[in-house]
Design a protein that fits this description.
single chain, mainly alpha, 75% helix, 0% strand, elongated
């Protein structure tokens, strides 16, 4: 996957490292908390905070991972019908893809903030951990902002992966990349 360097590459690198660090923390935290939960159940004294903790870590992990999937154009798309279509359809599909993805993240941001403000207004607290629920709810708008940044990075630095090629070109690329895995 060829990356085209831009003026924002340093910023994108920083965001990518932040996402990676957060994901390491959340996954490691989940593993540790779930192991504590298992050990507690084995010894007959389960810890009530472990279920809630693993759930909160999972939510944060999923929203950050959703955004991270867009950084290098690693999100799923179905392009088979577009590959056999006319060139104008391929160009239009790129614009439509960008519009739909960014619109999705904007809606996710707006409704995520709405939930956070509601959690703050109602002073919601976790039942076992007794932490403010907005610290968990904020993962949705944070994931949305990271997703928009990742989508912009797609189009600026990985445009060849966003662009829809023709079927024969895609097949040739796949065969060429297959040889890279053998090394």
């Amino acid at each position: 996957m060829e990356r085209k360097k831009t003026k924002l590459s340093g910023f994108f690198d920083l965001v990518g490292k932040l996402e990676d660090a957060l994901l390491v923390v959340f996954v490691t935290g989940m593993i540790v908390v779930i192991l504590i939960q298992i050990i507690g159940r084995i010894v007959g004294n389960p810890f009530p905070w472990t279920e809630e903790s693993s759930r909160y870590l999972f939510l944060w992990m999923m929203f950050v991972a959703l955004a991270a999937g867009f950084n290098r154009c690693e999100s799923a798309r179905v392009t088979l019908l577009l590959q056999i279509g006319p060139k104008w359809l391929k160009k239009f599909s790129e614009v439509l893809y960008a519009f739909c993805v960014i619109a999705f993240f904007i809606v996710m941001f707006i409704y995520g903030l709405d939930v956070v403000f509601q959690q703050i207004a109602w002073e919601e607290m976790g039942t076992a951990l007794l932490i403010p629920m907005w610290t968990i709810g904020i993962c949705q708008p944070v994931g949305a902002v990271l997703g928009i940044i990742g989508t912009v990075q797609n189009f600026l630095e990985y445009h060849d992966n966003v662009a829809i090629g023709d079927k024969e070109t895609e097949k040739a690329k796949a065969l060429a990349n297959e040889g890279d895995f053998d090394k």
